[in-house]
Structure of Phenylalanine--tRNA ligase alpha subunit:
Amino acid sequence: MLDRLAELQEEALKQIETTTDLRALNDIRVSYLGKKGPITEVLKGMGKLSAEERPKVGEVANKVREAITLAIEEKLAALEKAEVEKRLASETIDVTLPGRPVRKGSHHPLTAIIEEIEDLFIGMGYTIAEGPEVEKDYYNFEALNLPKGHPARDMQDSFYITEETLLRTQTSPMQVRTMEKHNGKGPVKIICPGKVYRRDNDDATHSHQFTQIEGLVVDENIRMSDLKGTLTVFAQKMFGADRKIRLRPSFFPFTEPSVEMDISCKICNGEGCNVCKGTGWIEILGAGMVHPNVLEMAGFDSKKYTGFAFGMGPERIAMLKYGIEDIRNFYINDRRFIEQFKRA
Ligand code: FA5
Ligand code: MG
C-alpha cells in the first residue's frame, strides 16, 4: 500500500511538472485529489490493515496529498506569471501617440442670450422669477383681463390640456402670480424667462414653442416714461447705440396704453429681407402700462399703484444680434450652428 502511494506521488508530480496550461493542471488536481481519485481509493482499503499499520499508512497518504497540492499550487503560480509576462511582451504602449480629443460642450446660444438679458436686468435691480409651463386658464388669460370668449384670445392659438389648463402662450401669467405673492404691497420688480407654446405655423420667425422674457415693475408713481427709459437702455446695451428703435402703439388686454417695440433689421439694414418680411423692422417685444383691472385682480390698489410690463422673444433678439436668418436653427440642434456661439 505504501508502495502504491509512493508510486502515485511520483506519477502525479511528473504530470504536474510537464503541464503547460492551466486547464490541464486543474484536470490533474481533480483526478488525483478528488473523491474518486486513486488516493481515496487506497484509503478505502485501510480497513483490512492491522491496527499498527493503519496510522502509518494514513500519515503517508496525507503527506502524498500535501506534496501533490503544493506542487499544483507552485505550478499554478508559475503558469500565471508566465501568462502575464507573455502579455507584457506582446502588448506595447506608444506613449508618444497623441491623446483622443475630448469634445467640450457649450451653452446653447439661446441660453447664452437669456443669461445675458438676465444679467442686464439684474444690473438694474430686477430679480428673477420662474413659473409653470402648464398653466391655468385663469393665470394665462382671465386674470390678464382676457375673460372667456374674449376675441383677443385668438391672437394666441393655444394648446389646451383640459378646459382649465393649457401650455402657457406667454410668460405674462407670471405677472399675476408674482403680484399675488406680494399681497398688494409694492415694489415689484421682476423678470421671468421661460418657454411658451402657441399653435403658430413654423416659419423663419415663428416657432410653435419659443421663449419669452417677461418684465414687471409695480410701485407708486411708475409712468410710461419709466418704461420707455428702461426699454431704451435695454436696446442700446443689447444691440449697440447705432441700431434704430421704434415704439408703435399696439393693443394688449392687460396693458393700457400698449406698445410694441421694433428694432431696425440687422440682416438687411432696414432695406427689407425675408427675416423682416420686407419691412426693415423686426418686432422684438410687446409692452405697456399694467391695466388697472389686472392690478386689482392680483390684489393691488390701482389708485395707489401703477406699473409697466413687457414681454420679449429672446430668439428674435439673438437673431438680430448674431444675424441668424431662421428661428428653426435654434431647435434642430445642428452642432455646426450651436458651436459657433461658444463663450470664452
Ligand atoms: C405677448 O405675448 C405679450 N404677453 C407681451 C406683453 C407682455 C405685452 C407684457 C405687454 C405687457 P406677443 O404675442 O406680441 O405678446 O409676443 C411677444 C414677443 O414674443 C414678440 O414680440 C416676439 O418677439 C415673440 N414671439 C411671439 N410669437 C412668436 C413665435 N411664434 N415664435 C417666436 N417668437 C414669437
Ligand atoms: Mg405680436
